[in-house]
Structures are given as C-alpha cells and as structure tokens.
Amino acid sequence: MSSLPHVVIVGAGFGGLAAARALGDAPVRVTVVDRRNHHLFQPLLYQVASAALNPSDIAVPIRAVLRPYKNVRTLLGEVRSVDVDTRTVTLDQGSLAYDHLIVATGAGHSYFGHDDWAAHAPGLKSLDDATAIRRKVLLAYEAAEREQDPAVRRALLTFVVVGAGPTGVELAGALAEIGHHAMAGEFRAFAPEDVRVLLLEGADRVLPPFEPASSAAAAQQLAKLNVEVRTGARVTHIDAEGVMLGDERIAARTVLWAAGVQGSRLGAALGGPTDRAGRVEVDAQLRLPGHPEVFVVGDLAAASSEGKAVPGVAQGAIQGGQFAAAVIQAELQGRTLAPFRYVDKGSMATIGRRAAVAEIGGRRLRGTLAWLAWMVVHIAFLIGFRNRVLVLLSWAWAWLTFRRGARLITGGFVPLPAPGDVAAPPQDGAGGNTRGPQRVEASRPAA
Amino acid sequence: MSSLPHVVIVGAGFGGLAAARALGDAPVRVTVVDRRNHHLFQPLLYQVASAALNPSDIAVPIRAVLRPYKNVRTLLGEVRSVDVDTRTVTLDQGSLAYDHLIVATGAGHSYFGHDDWAAHAPGLKSLDDATAIRRKVLLAYEAAEREQDPAVRRALLTFVVVGAGPTGVELAGALAEIGHHAMAGEFRAFAPEDVRVLLLEGADRVLPPFEPASSAAAAQQLAKLNVEVRTGARVTHIDAEGVMLGDERIAARTVLWAAGVQGSRLGAALGGPTDRAGRVEVDAQLRLPGHPEVFVVGDLAAASSEGKAVPGVAQGAIQGGQFAAAVIQAELQGRTLAPFRYVDKGSMATIGRRAAVAEIGGRRLRGTLAWLAWMVVHIAFLIGFRNRVLVLLSWAWAWLTFRRGARLITGGFVPLPAPGDVAAPPQDGAGGNTRGPQRVEASRPAA
C-alpha cells in the first residue's frame, strides 16, 4: 500500500478553496488549514458592515464545503511559520509535513506606514471587521440622538471613507442609503439631511482600476446619493476626531479605511522575493522560485499573465488555485503545464439602488443594467443554496422597504462616545421644549 | 400649551416594549432606555446558541419597532441608578426626570453563590451569550478533530447542560442534533456516536414547572435523541475540566448553565422589598409599594395574580407591560383599575425534530403535534415580517437537510484548548497511517 502525496493548503479563501475542490478527486491527501472556520464571500462583506446582510449569509463552514471530498480534511489552526527546506508547516499547536504546499492567505490592510491610523479608521477584511464597523456606524447614530452639542452631533453624523476602489465606493453608497433612507423617521434629534458621507480618493478619479468613462458614471451616481466625492485628496492625519487633508480638518467620528492592501505576514516568511505590497513574486507556474513544490495563489501572489499583473480579485484567486491544483496533478502524471493564463471575466462595482458600473468583455454597463448584472453574478458565485435564497430575500426586502435587516449592535454595552446631558424628550405636537427636572418636581404629588 | 406627563421605560424586552406600544397613542411623552439597540425574542435564543438561526433573525432594532409612535423616543443607554424620591433616572451619561417609571430590566443568571462557575458554565440571556456559546461548542469540535489523546478528545466531545427547564431541555436536544446529525461526515478523527450530551437536573424530573406526564414525555423524547438525562443530580463543582456531582467527575470541556435566575441589579436599587431571587415585590397594580408612579413588570417583578405567582415567561411580561400602561392611562383619566390578572396561555418546550411537549388550556400535547404548535406560536410572536420569513426558511432548510446554517465562529482566532501534535491526515482508502515528517524528508527531491 503506497502512501499518497500530502498537499497542505493554507487559507480557505477563494484561492485555497478552489485548489482544495480541484484536488478533491485526485490521488493525493489534502489538509486545509485556516484560522477561521468559515469561507467568506468577501465581495459582499461591505453589506454586512452596512447592516444589509447577516454574517452567515456570506459565509459557509469550510468543512461543510469540503465534506464530499473524503481525501480532504479541514483543520482550524493558525500557521505560525513555514520551513520550505524541511517542508514543514508549524501551527499554533503541532506541525504538518507536506509534499506540496499551496499558500493562499490573502492580504490585509496597509496604512502606508501610519499604523496608528488603524485604531481610528478600521478596514474591512473579515466578518469581525464587518460587525465592528456596523457597530461603530450604528453607535454613532445612537450617540447623535443623545448629543446636545450641535458641533459634536455633526461630527457624529459625518462618515468618511478613505479610498474609492470598489470597496470604498460600495461602502460610501451604502452609508448614504443608511443615513438618508434606512433609518428615516426613527430619530427625534436630527433629520436624514443632517447625515454627511464623504469619499476621499488620492487619484484623480473614483474606481481608478476601471476605465475613465466608468469612473465618471460612478461619480455621477454617487453624487445622486449625496455622497461628497473628493478626488486628489491626500489624507495626512487620522485621529478619533476626524481626518486631516493637508491643512483642512474634516470633523468625523466615523472614518473607514478602504485604501491600501498588504500581503499577509506568511508571504515574507517563505523567504522568497516580495514586492512593495508584501506580495510574493511567483514564477509562470505560480511557484516560489527555487521551490517547485510551493505555490502562492490569490491576493498574496504577485503573479503575471501574458506580461500583465493579475489583479487582486476573486477571479484571480480562483483561477490561481485551480491552476496550482492542475500543476500538482500534471506533475504526478509526469506532465508539465503551460504558464498560468488569467482570464478576465470583467469587473463591477455597485453603488446603490439601481446604481452600478460594470466592464464585461469590453462592454461598459452603468445604472440599472449594471446593477442587475452585479446582483446576478454575486448571487451565482455565492457558495450554498441556502445562502443564495437568504441573500436574495434580504435584498428583495431591502429593495421593497428601504430598510436593512441586520441592524444589530453586538459586543456588550460600552458607554457612548459623547459626554453631556441627555436631550429633553419630544413634545407631542409643536412648540418649544422646556421640560426639566424642576418641572417634574413641581408636579410630583407629596409621597 | 401644556406639558405632557413623561413616562420613562427602562428595558425593551417583552414587558417594556409592550408598555411602550400600549402608550404609543396616549397623551404622554415616552422615553424608552435600553443598554442594547435591539429587542430580543428570547424564547429562540437557544437556536442562535446552537447555530440554527442568525442573531438578527430573532432581534429587531428597538427604534425600528417604535418608529410609528411619534410620542416615543428611544435612547441607547445604561441606567446606573434610580432615585425614586427625586424621580430621576441616572444614565451612563446624563439623567432623565420622570412622572411615571416602568422598570422592565428582566433577570440574569444565578449560580447559587458559586460565581466562579460562571467562567466555565456560561448561561444564555443575550445575543452575545448565544454567540459565545455557539463559538465554544463549535471550537470544541474543531479541537477534537486535532486532538490525539483519546481521553481529552472524549472530554471535548462531552457536552453538559445544567438545569432541565425549557431552556435546558431545548439546548440539550439541539446539542444532540448537532453532534449526531448536523456535522456528520465532516470530521475525520471521530464519529457522530462519540458525541455525548448530558442533561443534569436537581429535581426528580425534567421540566419541573410542567405536569408530570409532560415531563415523562419529554424524558422519553430526549432519550430517543441520545441525551443522557440525570435527575436528582446536584452539581457540587464546575471548572475548566468538567463537572462534579458529589464524588463523581464528568470530564467535559463544554458546560452550559440553564439553572437559576436572578433579578437584574436595578431591582434592589429601587429600595423596595425583594424576594430571594432578587425580584421586586409589587402590589396588585404592579407598583412599587409607596411609589404608585413606579411600576415593575416582567421577570424582575415578583407579582401575583389571584393568589398565584406570575411565572417568568414572555406572556407574564407582555401582560404586565400592557397592564402598567393601562394603569397610567386610567390614572390620567381619574379612573382606577382592578388588580392585575395573568391569563395563562399555556407552556411549551421543544426538544428536537418533531419532538416537543405543550400544555395549552388544560390539554397536553406531545411529539409532532406539540412540535407544530410550538413552531406556529413562535413564528406568530416573532416581531417583524422579515424575521418570520427568514426563520421559517431557516427551519425548512434545517428540516430538509439536517444542517444548521449559522455555524460561524466569530471573535478572532484563539488557539485551541488542547495542546499536542496534529493528528496525521487521512489515507485515501483503508489502512494504517504511519506518515510522518521522516517519510516526507525521504521523498523530497534534492532542491
């Protein structure tokens, strides 16, 4: 009885999961290691952050996805280091020996050397990030309802998104819809018009990876949603009170980061060359130079296809993972494969209700058509029938009612940020509001 | 222009929300204060803990529920103290003066003087409790998959529920279904039969508040699900390794508490008499003795109706909240109301698939019929059309597939509890598994 080769896959995002599924029927043993128990559909993460979807609508347990493949096991664990010479992966507990390794741990945020900004401007990569942002946004509204100082209330109702790539555009659009529609009529101390959403971008247009015409269409649609777009805006400082753009201060209690990405820590640990963003430079077979048994796929790889860089999108990761699996199987059969070739299936970004842009196969779409295309594609690629049905229903409900169904603040009670007395309660009918404790004492019967 | 009386409601559970809605059209101003932004449908909380439902399926934003009532405002805040003499409620920030006060802050857990047990045996009162329990249960399975020591693995796969009231019975049934069905086929290191669920009860039967025939029916249905029920079991110690019943140790890494309740802290702060469980003794109008302007309703009240104690269930709180609102309105009109009268609408507890018991209007149901009745009642009382649809769909999906849709471990990576090496990966096909690092090194080509 021969022992089958052991393939270790680190990370069960789009790249790792695609590789594991592709190896599901192959004559290898596969171990998938992830520090989370769920695969996350990252393109919809901003909808959890903006309270439209539930965390579990866009996530599935990794081991549930891989259950059909008897040669695959799933381990929850954190990879601490990789020794490419002894071919060993060290976990938080124990270690794994491999014959082939596929590293697909993705990317995190880069604050361009200003790591102190992270505390004030959270980014969006995990479900925990998304629920933390949801909490921050909803708490700002709650604090505004209790706040008496108009300047502080303005800062509480000002939301700044830094970075106008697809995630930034989608977040800004969603924040505007929350402020101007979803919570209308629920607050007594301010009106929907008091809510301000700013989208800051260092480049000269939103959605820089798209064609200029798509950027212009997106800017127009953002303006309709009352998002204030500032291009050529260089953020020089972020703290708890807001953002500095050179000498200009924007007072905002909620600042979200959608600007830079940085390859995950494990990339550098492999010992090979990395680019400025910490991504691992791989060969035409997506392998670590000098180590044909180690593959790097997805956002962590600085890969190229026909001389062009492969973009850090879901399709790049999925195709990379499938390719790595194919190379391993080809090798086992004594064959070699042609270099990796990325097939661009198009890009899209959604902005709001019937507002989106898409570039598919050389065609540009905008408005309702792009928005419908965006929905169809995102539903189609969601893993799990149940999730598709629930997401479709949540969207239908949100579309019909203008409401968001997942407006939960979880994580225990924390006193609101703004000190000061509670505003007086509303009077039934018009008129001034002079009710105070004195008044109450006067009307109290002698006990 | 006259200033309307100000009613402050603390807590937006079943009691507080019922009172606020009943006062929604009355000539009063109402302020609802809660430390959470959501109203929680507590009877389904165990389904979040057992990964069947999402947190937002059973919770709605309080201010969304109260939006139609223009005389009601909602504040997120924590009440620190109440001064019944000056009629002032002090919040984490600022204070509120009231003419009428309705305290409906419910109950928490009581560990019967063993507060050190709380860290090892969490209880189930909030959404954060539920997601923490879900995390604990799912992590135990993940750790068991990596564990090599059979004794430790057994302890990881042993789940103990202390207390066999409705919540304990429901939790135990759900844990058994998770272990024996929902995750079947997903683990390589153990089989569903290795999962053990124990339900411990100090009284001589499960569901002590029900009639003996219902208890017997529940015990039978629990046995069918392979839940080991121990009645007359006195827990004498709980730590990270398990539970002591006198001299007997049950090694279990997951222990859940569903035994005692304790009135919330604010009850004692009112200064009136409280019972042993910290509940406030109220008069026939649910008022604090000596303070006819202060009402206590729901689980925090030790109320009676026609000489019998009002049980700590949702119906008791709803009827109490509505009654307090009616008393306030009657007083404003110069009328007085007859004493509070609790209408028992029946009790039910569900155990598993087509397994439940119910007592409605003197009739006892069990099995499929009770289970259907339980579902209809719980769907009917859920607030919000969207929630009802999503819960129905989640149940239908779980029923058809035996799977649970909300199996997310959130809250960041924490190393698994059990140390030790990682078990070897599965072989494709039968046979021993001797693959180790040496083997890998031997098969490695010279780099």
What is this structure, in a nutshell?
In chain A, 31% of the residues lie in helices and 24% in strands. Chain A is an alpha/beta fold.
Structure description:
- 2 copies of one chain form a homodimer.
- Chain A is an alpha/beta fold and 447 residues long.
- Chain A has 12 helices and 27 strands.
- In chain A, the strands form 9 sheets. A 6-stranded mixed sheet of chain A has the order 5-2-1-9-21-20, with helices on one face.
- In chain A, helix 1 packs parallel to helix 9 and helix 4 packs antiparallel against helix 5.
- The C terminus of chain A is likely disordered.
- Chains A and B meet through strand 2, strand 5, strand 8, helix 4 and helix 11 of A and strand 2, strand 5, strand 8, helix 4 and helix 11 of B.
Major sheet size, sense and barrel closure of chain A = 6 strands, mixed
Main sheet of chain A: which strands, in order across?
Answer: 5-2-1-9-21-20
Structural class of chain A: alpha/beta
Average the pLDDT over all residues of chain A and give the rounded result.
Answer: 88
Strand tally of chain A is 27
